[in-house]
Amino acid sequence: MTDLDIPEVPFPLKAHGPDGDWSYEDGVLTGRAGPRQDRFVPPDGDALEPASDAPRLLGAPPEGDFQLIARVSVGFRDAFDAGVLYVHVGERAWAKLCLEYSPDVPTVCTVVTRGHSDDANSFTVDGDSVWLRVSRTGRAFAFHASRDGARWTFVRFFTLGEEEETGAALVGFMAQSPVGEGCAVTYDHIAFRHGGPGDLRDGG
Question: Region Disordered: what ranges (predicted)?
Fold first, then answer.
């Protein structure tokens, strides 16, 4: 499969990287990471080292501010298994908002890659699901997470450099299992909204 149309997302999505066995039915998107699949450039690694790769399902959003929202559920098995909302503007310019087993507790985590990747944990989650939201506001992006889909916690606000200014950003979904044997990820309550959040830090 190379393309997938999801009614809640007003642009086509294309599979990138390893086969994620992506499927959509009755409002639920499902993907799967294979063994030791990830998307990360170690901050202490060689600058010329290629990025590792994981299954991604991405598309080009309309111009202007937007929000992509989904409740993410992960079939955790091993450390760092994760379901991800993903932003991509270049081979070394991309970002992940994850529900990750980090290393043995479900945690909202972020990675921003500008040449090399950083890695930061936000807050832990009870259970295997959380709501994630990625927004574009102007030339910047914002990450939020929510336990109930109503009250949002501000996680991160950042840019990805000059490439983002061209409007060539791709957004969508990713699954990873960096050290494990693979995991399944589902996304439901998917929504795409034109316009960014009213206030990045007010919980709305």
Answer: 1-24, 33-52
> What is the rounded CA–CA span in Å between residue 192 and residue 170?
14
| Integer Cα distance of 136 and 197 in angstroms | 9
The whole-angstrom separation of Cα 32 and Cα 17 is: 12
Q: Is the pTM of this model over 0.90?
A: yes
Residue 195 CA to residue 136 CA, distance in Å, equals: 8
- What domains can be seen in the chain, in order of their start residue? 3-194 (2.60.120.200)
Nearest alpha-carbon partner for 174 in 78, 44, 53, 86: 86
